[in-house]
Amino acid sequence: MGSSRRPGGGHQRGVSLIGLLFWAIIIGFFGYVAVRVLPTLNEYFTIQSAVNKIAAENLTTVGEIRRQFDKQKDIEYSIASISGKDLDITKENDRIVIRFAYPKEIELIAPVYLLIKYEGRSR
């Protein structure tokens, strides 16, 4: 009669303080990585957009294409990793194709870096 046991097994359920701290550190680390990576993704998509826009303009010479990209780079403040001279410009089936590739190093915690290799081409 004087039992202090709870009905249903008597075991407490929940997360311990150490478990909570562990998950907070894991989620915090991935959030930190996401915050560091998102600006580089924005730069990649901006470069991709600029390359597609330039390829659609039907410019005829490689120099014109490079100059147009450099003008676009001056307008778009987020493009810092490449310039017009880094573009690979070819012609495939009477269409101009502009390719680009560049690595991006992101310092997470010194001396740990994350290396992302971006590459793309015009449509």
Strand content: 15-25%
The mean pLDDT is 89
Helix residue percentage:
40-55%
Radius of gyration: 26 Å
Number of strands: 3
State the secondary-structure class: alpha+beta
Description:
This protein has 123 residues and is α+β, with helices and mostly antiparallel strands. Helices cover 44% and strands 24% of the residues. The chain is built from 2 helices and 3 strands. Strands 1-2-3 form a 3-stranded antiparallel β-sheet, with helices on one face. A hairpin with a 2-residue loop joins strand 2 and strand 3. Helix 1 crosses helix 2. The protein is elongated, with a radius of gyration of 26 Å. The model has no long low-confidence stretch (mean pLDDT 89).
At a glance:
By secondary structure, the chain is of the alpha+beta class.
Give descriptors for this structure.
123 residues, three-stranded antiparallel sheet, 2 helices, elongated
Mind sketching the topology for me?
Elements: H1 17-56, H2 62-75, E1 88-92, E2 95-109, E3 112-121
Antiparallel strand pairs: 1-2, 2-3
